[in-house]
């Protein structure tokens, strides 16, 4: 995936007033034709936080980062409160983002899924290629159903720009970027992908938090939301963010991240990835090693702003579908069926196969997401069986995608 960078053919002469659009690759899958490009995206927000006033600038070394993680999660720690309380700052600017666009090989697209990957992920999360099968690729399943998919390395990740990782690369600014991208798609000026008037926001983990916050400032950006790896009950306990063991990326994987500053971090090894993302044995060894070998870095600004998006209230009335693995570690403390809720919001069954499994209507922690979308007229949940946080890397991925496609069809978007 990273090798695509080496295929980059620079445009010979760029007209300076135009955004930089550089197409680098065309790829043909089973159901989808994909192409990649860079585009400069302008956005502005007044809602970033002056995190540097709380956690300082990039940590000088890994031992300092470990100590500050302990301080943050320590008994009686006030760091989280200080972060929530930090002064708001304005951030604006145009940053280069890397995109992958996939469309059905035949026929016109019904609409577009605009995806938002999570921490430790990148655009590739939505087009996972495993074992010569299209079945782990969301983009392939979408194309099979007649939909296009637009994925991007979010700001700070992979091939996209890497500005100040503490005060600029935070969820409020990324929300503004996502709004700006959707707006460009609706007016038809994002690279050469054309114009769409049906756009569904799809998120995973941090990307789902981003969308939950986004609809409070821009409810018309997306005609529906698909939130995967998400609940409104993320754990602060041992299976939460602390278990990612955020490690300075250039220390953990110097060959991949040597140019990242020290506020760019990543999980340090494959077994930490298993803890955060996988349910044994419902994945293949290739899947786990592919995840680890292609994963993305994230910033301390992202890690410390992730919950800010959920503080915002919204009146979003459009359809919302929450799809989370039964054993999701960070969002369910590895057991979504442990809940104090006594009735299920609206869990969706298997509409294709007429399943009557009793788990269908069992309340789960996914139902806590209903609090975030009190006005949605079509809110449903689906617990993916025998699956953890990294749904797309499990053998159940195709089943999860089928549920998403079915939801979209039934919702008449
Ligand atoms: C939050 O800010 C208020 C007003 O500046 C201050 O009184 C309070 O002590 C702060 N709380 C924390 C946890 O820093
Ligand atoms: C696709 O859309 C174009 C332009 O709207 C139209 O001319 C063409 O007939 C459509 N093709 C199919 C297969 O629907
Ligand atoms: C993908 O999944 C579908 C549905 O379960 C199955 O019919 C097909 O054989 C799978 N394809 C591959 C290559 O495994
Ligand atoms: C699309 O056009 C609008 C209006 O001119 C502009 O604000 C926006 O930045 C453009 N988007 C891209 C990706 O160039
Ligand atoms: C991965 O390979 C090891 C060694 O063959 C095996 O014990 C383990 O069960 C495999 N994991 C999965 C998920 O299949
Ligand atoms: C998960 O793996 C177990 C053991 O291989 C298998 O019995 C079970 O059917 C799998 N679950 C799903 C939903 O595929
Ligand atoms: C939601 O709607 C209510 C009633 O119309 C309004 O008072 C409130 O400000 C709205 N909230 C948002 C976040 O738009
Ligand atoms: C939230 O998760 C905890 C486990 O971490 C669980 O005990 C609790 O019941 C959950 N809350 C709800 C409302 O589901
Ligand atoms: C479930 O959905 C139905 C119809 O969409 C709605 O009337 C009902 O209130 C929902 N139940 C809950 C608990 O949200
Ligand atoms: C579900 O099963 C029942 C009984 O077997 C059948 O009558 C009904 O048509 C099925 N519904 C669907 C949507 O397949």
From TrEMBL:
Low complexity bias: start-end ranges: 342-359
UniProt keyword Oxidoreductase present: no
Signal sequence, renumbered to the chain: 1-17
Domain AB hydrolase-1: 116-328
InterPro entries noted in UniProt: AB_hydrolase_1, AB_hydrolase_fold
Entry-linked Gene3D superfamilies: alpha/beta hydrolase (3.40.50.1820)
Tagged with keyword Calcium: no
Keywords: Signal
UniProt-annotated stretches for the region Disordered: 342-367
One Pfam family it belongs to: Abhydrolase_1
Listed name of the protein: AB hydrolase-1 domain-containing protein
């Amino acid at each position: 995936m990273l090798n695509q960078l080496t295929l980059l053919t620079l445009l010979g002469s760029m007209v300076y007033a135009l955004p930089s659009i550089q197409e680098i690759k065309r790829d043909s899958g089973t159901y989808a034709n994909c192409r990649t490009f860079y585009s400069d995206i302008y956005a502005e927000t007044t809602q970033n936080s002056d995190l540097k006033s709380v956690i300082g600038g990039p940590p000088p070394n890994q031992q300092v980062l470990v100590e500050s993680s302990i301080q943050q999660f320590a008994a009686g720690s006030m760091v989280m409160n200080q972060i929530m309380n930090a002064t708001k700052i304005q951030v604006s600017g145009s940053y280069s983002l890397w995109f992958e666009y996939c469309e059905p090989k035949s026929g016109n697209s019904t609409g577009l899924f605009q995806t938002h990957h999570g921490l430790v992920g990148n655009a590739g999360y939505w087009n996972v290629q495993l074992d010569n099968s299209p079945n782990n690729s969301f983009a392939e399943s979408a194309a099979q159903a007649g939909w296009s998919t637009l994925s991007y390395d979010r700001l700070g990740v992979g091939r996209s720009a890497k500005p100040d990782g503490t005060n600029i690369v935070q969820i409020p600014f990324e929300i503004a970027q996502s709004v700006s991208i959707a707006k460009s798609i609706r007016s038809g000026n994002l690279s050469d992908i054309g114009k769409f008037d049906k756009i569904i926001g799809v998120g995973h983990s941090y990307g789902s938090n981003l969308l939950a916050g986004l609809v409070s400032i821009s409810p018309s950006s997306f005609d529906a939301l698909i939130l995967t790896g998400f609940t409104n009950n993320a754990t602060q306990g041992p299976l939460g963010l602390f278990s990612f063991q955020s490690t300075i990326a250039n220390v953990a994987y110097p060959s991949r991240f040597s140019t990242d500053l020290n506020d760019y971090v990543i999980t340090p090894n494959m077994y930490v990835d298993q803890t955060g993302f996988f349910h044994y044995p419902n994945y293949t060894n290739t899947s786990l090693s592919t995840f680890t070998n292609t994963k993305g870095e994230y910033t301390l600004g992202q890690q410390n702003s992730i919950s800010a998006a959920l503080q915002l209230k919204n009146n979003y009335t459009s359809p919302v579908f929450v799809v989370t693995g039964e054993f999701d570690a960070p969002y369910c403390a590895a057991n979504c069926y442990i809940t104090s809720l006594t009735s299920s919001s609206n869990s969706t069954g298997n509409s294709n196969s007429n399943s009557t499994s009793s788990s269908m209507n069992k309340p789960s922690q996914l139902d806590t997401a209903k609090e975030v979308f009190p006005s949605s007229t079509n809110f449903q949940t689906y617990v993916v069986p025998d699956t953890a946080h990294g749904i797309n890397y499990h053998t159940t991925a195709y089943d999860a995608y089928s549920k998403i496609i079915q939801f979209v069809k039934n919702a008449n978007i």
